[in-house]
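Re: WT7 structure - here you go.
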Amino acid sequence: MSDRFPVPDRVRHGASGPIPDLATHRELSARAIANPSGFWLDEAKVRLAWHTEPTLGLKGSFHDIQEGPISWFGDGVLNVTESCLDRHLDSRGEKVAILWEGDEPNEIRRITYRELHAEVCRTANALQELGVKRGERVILYMGMVPEAAIAMLACARLGAIHSVVFGGFSAEALRDRIRDCGAQVVITQDEGRRGGRSVPLKAVTDAALEGERGVEKVLVFRRTGGEIDWTEGRDVWWHEAVGEASATHQAVPVGAEDPLFILYTSGSTGRPKGVVHTCAGYLVWTSFTHEAVFDLREGDVYACVADVGWITGHSYIVYGPLCNGATTLMFESTPLYPDAGRYWDMVERHRINILYTAPTAIRALAAAGDAFVEKYDRSSLRVLGTVGEPINPDAWKWYARTVGEGRCAVVDTWWQTETGGHMITPVAPAIAAKPGSATLPLPGVMPVLLDERDRVIHGPGEGRLCLEMPWPGMARTVWGDHARYVSTYFGLFPGRYFTGDGCRRDDDGYYWITGRVDDVINVSGHRMGTAEFEAALNSVEEVAEAAVVGFPHPIKGQGVYAYVVLQPGFSGSVELEAAMNKTCRAQIGAHAKVDLFQVVPGLPKTRSGKVMRRILRKVAEGEPEKLGDVSTLADPSVVQAIVEGARTL
Ligand code: WT7
C-alpha cells in the first residue's frame, strides 16, 4: 500500500473554489459526465464576459473528428481580453495583476489590472498600426518579461493569433515556425536575461529572418540595452510604437471558436506541429482548472515559475490566472540563481501562497540541501503544484515535508499542450494525495486504459492512456493540417484521444502516469521528439545513421541517449560528441543536448529495415537482460556489441 496524504487542515478550511470538497468533486463529475454540453455551457456563461452569450455547448464527437474540428460554445461571440482585463477594472483595478521578479533578486515590477489593461490597449493599437489584423499570426520570441504577456493579450485583443516560441529555440527552429504559420510580424526583445547571463533574442531573430520575405515588421522590446543590429524599415522599437499609442482600444469581438493561439510541440516525426487552441473553450478550461485545482483565493499571491514559451505559461501564468483576477507572478530567472534558495527567498519576500513548478526543479533543489529552504519563511505557502513529468515519491515527499512543512497540499497535475489545461490531478481541498500519483480525473474528464491488444481495462491495471470524451480546453486541430491532427491523436484508437502516455490505475481508482510510450522524450519537462534529434545527428558529416531514445536521469527525469553509426573511416571522440551536440543546439535549441553517445557498428533492425527501438531503450535504461526476443533481427550480432558498449552517466 502506498502512502496516503489527506488534505491538510489549512487547505480544507476556507476553501472557496468550485470544488471545495470531495462530495462536490463527485457531484460535479457525475453532472459533467451525464451532460457535458450543459455543464460546460453553464460554466462558460458565468466564467467569461461575452458579447453574445452562447446557446450551444458541444458540437461534434471523436467519432466524426475527421470531418472537422470539435466545437464548444460555437455561437458565442467574445474577446478573451475582456474576460482577463476589462471586467476586473471595477472590482480589482488596483490589484496587482502581474508581479514580475527579474533575473536579479529584488528586481521587481508590479502591474495592476488597470495598468495592464492600459498597456495591452496601447500594444494592440501599436500592432494594429503595424498591420496586424484578426486571424493573422504573430510570432513572439521573448524572455520572461511582462511585455511577453502584454504582447499575447494585445494579439488576442485584435483577434490575431499568437505563437510563442520558447526563447531557447535556435534560429532554424524559429524560422520553421515562422514559415509554418505564415507570420507577418515577430515580437522579440534586444536580449533576455537568465541566470546572470544574456540571451541574444534579437540576434537569433535576425538570423531566423535572413533571406525570409514573409515577415514585414519586427517589434523589439528593450530589456537590457545591449548592442543589436537594426534593419531599417523592418525593425520597430516597442517603447516608441507602444509608448506613443493610445491607452484605449475597443476589443475586437470574435467567434468562440476563433483560434486564440498556436503553440508548436514535438511529436513522433521530425516536424513540430502547431497545436491550435481556440478562444472560449480554452479560457473556460484554464479558468475553471486554475481556480479549482489550486483552490485560488482572492488575496492569494500565485506563482507559476514556468516559461511563457510552453503551455504551462500560457494557461497558468497568463490566461487562467488573469481570467480569475489573480495576482500572477512572472519569474525571469532560474531556481538556482543566484543560489538554490531563490524560490524560497521569493516565497518569503512576496508571501507566495501557491507555487507551481516542475519535478526537475524539485529534484535539483532537494539535491542542493535543506539549508537553502530552511533559511526562509515559507509559512505563506498553502498549495504546491508540480507539472511536466512524473514525480518520484521521494521528490514529492521532500516537496510536501521540507518545503511545505506538512501544511500544504501537493497537486501533481497531469496534462499536455494538447489538453489546454489540467486533466488528471488532485484538487487541493478535495482529494487526498498519494506521492507519485496524479490521483483522479477532473469533472468532465474520462480516462480509459487500453491493453496491448487494444482492449479496455476495467478496474486496476496498466495500459495506454486515452480520453473518451471532448472537453472545452482540448486543441482543435494542427495548424494547416487537420489530417495530421486526426491521425496523430485519433489514428491509433478511432473514437478516442490517445495521449501518448502509459498509465496505471490502482485499487482506489487513482492514476499513475508512467511516462511516454511513443517517440517523445521529456527532458526536464521539455518535450522533444527523438526524430528531431535523429534528423540533427544525421546531418553531421561523420554520421551514417543515428537512433535516439530516452533513459532515466536522476535530475532531469529523462536523459537523451544517442546510438550513432559512423561513416567508414571515422571513430568516436570527445570532439565528435561536442560537434554532434553543437548541431543539435543549432538545429533545435539550447535545451537539446545528448547526454550519452554510443558509437555502434550498426542499429538493430528487423529484416524489413525497421529499427527495433525496444532493444535500444532497454540497453539505455540499463536493463540489457530484459531485451526479449531478438531472433527477428536481420543481424543479431549487433546486439552484443550494443550491450557491451553501453554507456552510463
Ligand atoms: C507530457 C506533456 C503539461 C504541461 C507541461 C508539459 C508529461 C505532464 C505530468 C505529470 C506525469 C506528466 C506527460 C505528458 N507530463 N505532466 N503530472 N505526471 N507526466 O506539456 O510538453 O505537452 O508534455 O508531459 O508525458 O504527455 P507537454
